């Protein structure tokens, strides 16, 4: 989660965000100059993830909130050390993991369970049962309203699990004390007063990832809520991505408006300034997320992509939509090599280790640890490493892991080109993994198009800052395309022949088929302990 602040007089947005970079979750605060888009000061705090059972991923909501307060205070102190008066800060923006799900008690202000993280798999059997009940056993049964397949990824099934399995949540819902939200809602409610008048809201980008939101009417959908048996009363009010939601009630920034809110991938799209129909970006963090701006009309995918709300930058501004390809495991594969296999002492070592081999030597790695997301949406898939020989060593595995990130991106890009009818001519990239130059070159080689990386990697934070600074009543950031601040970048050109790229990609596709249907529904149910 990130909180980003907008400062006038050359600092426009400061924000708070929860980010995951190369498998490490951290909370960040940063201050941006509204006139130059320069990152003036920042601070980050590591956040603990817990894994109570196989496939379960949780975070402590109170730790998330405390980390935001710490980021705000430490960043403010750093500004003072730079002789910058914090009264120059004019607005605060929030960006967050979009599908991570929380329920709390509005009377006590206490969370009723840990936050269930977007990657969590405990609802696999619930998803399978829901799909079984649809006409034709169709995972896209709700797509016409939500833009999404029925999947463990999204918030509605996580909320169902909480209501069915956590007594405190069930009782709070029945007694009308429960509040549901993604991380942005929890933060905005808490920062604006919590149980003493806190604002319970979310923005359209986060709402569009719940499976409860109609992306055409831009409202919570009564039929979807009924389908998942979710009371509409517990849901936050849906607002635009750029407007004043409320004001900080404590700390060094008391009285500053919170005026920007974007899910992390939408924030990166805004931060990369992809405001034109057809522009796209790919963010490399724990997962990989490619978004392509499709303008003011949603494009429904026929090739396994998501249709999502990209942004709505003002109450009276139109919503813009995006096609999205979501890859569950990107940077997380590096953490797996480090923590589970012990072949890295630090995640940053993977570039050197992979470069030592310079090839995977025919080894292919499909990191389907959480099933496969786009374009397959297959929860039964599991990770495999194939093509091993006696010659294969850890350097080859490291190279294959980086290639896996690139191949998954290629699959998403191919689907996006087919859905949109036009081929992307270059890919804009951001996120923690883009510091890996070998990965960026591999990505250009496997896509057969240039890869463009901005020199300022904090594009997600920047997007939240821009939304906050542009809000009516703040008006310190100009979002007119002709006035956009240009950001310097580095371009990676393909260096191998397309024939070699196609050969390697075809082998990857063969490996993916081997990973499919590894688990059965009965196994998923017993492993995840579902009621």
Question: What does this entry look like structurally?
Answer:
With 531 residues, this protein is an alpha+beta fold. Helix content is 33%, strand content 24%. It has 16 helices and 25 strands. Strands 1, 2, 3, 4, 7, 15 and 16 form a 7-stranded mixed beta sheet that branches. A 7-stranded mixed beta sheet has the order 19-20-18-17-23-24-25. A hairpin with a 5-residue loop joins strand 3 and strand 4. Helix 4 crosses helix 5 and helix 10 packs antiparallel against helix 12. The chain is globular and about 65 Å long. The relative contact order is 0.15.
Amount of helix = 25-40%
Largest sheet: 7 strands, mixed
Oligomer: single chain
What is the averaged pLDDT score? 89
Radius of gyration: 22 Å
Percentage beta strand:
15-25%
Shape: globular
What is the number of helical segments per DSSP (H or I, 4+ residues)?
16
| First-last Cα distance | 31 Å
What class, by secondary structure content?
alpha+beta
Uncertain regions: pLDDT < 50 for 5+ in a row?
7-24
Number of strands: 25
Keywords, separated by commas or semicolons:
531 residues; globular; single chain; 7-stranded mixed sheet; alpha+beta
